[in-house]
Amino acid sequence: MEYREMLSTDATMDRIRSGVQVALPLDDMLEKAARYVAVSYDKLGFILKYDQDLERRVSEWHGDDIDEMWTMLQPLVKGKWRERSPRYAMEFERIGQKAVEFEAVHR
């Protein structure tokens, strides 16, 4: 929770979220927080992948947070981090995209 809150209120992450090119690397603490959040949601995505009903319920309950974090971290995950590891956070991407779609329909 602290890492998500830190990312949500950080000015650099606001710029990344809005599509502004940011000079990389990020400071160590910010990158650590971003990686922690990405890996945590990746683990959640892996668990939910095998239980569609649970995935739907988590999306209903927690979808706005997943949407926010995926939207914010997508440029880092799909850019910088996947250059080093092409399959990095694939399940986070999967649940992130579903959350974005779910939130768009239910707003």
UniProtKB/TrEMBL annotation:
Source taxon at top rank: Archaea
UniProt protein name: Uncharacterized protein
Organism: Candidatus Nitrosotenuis uzonensis
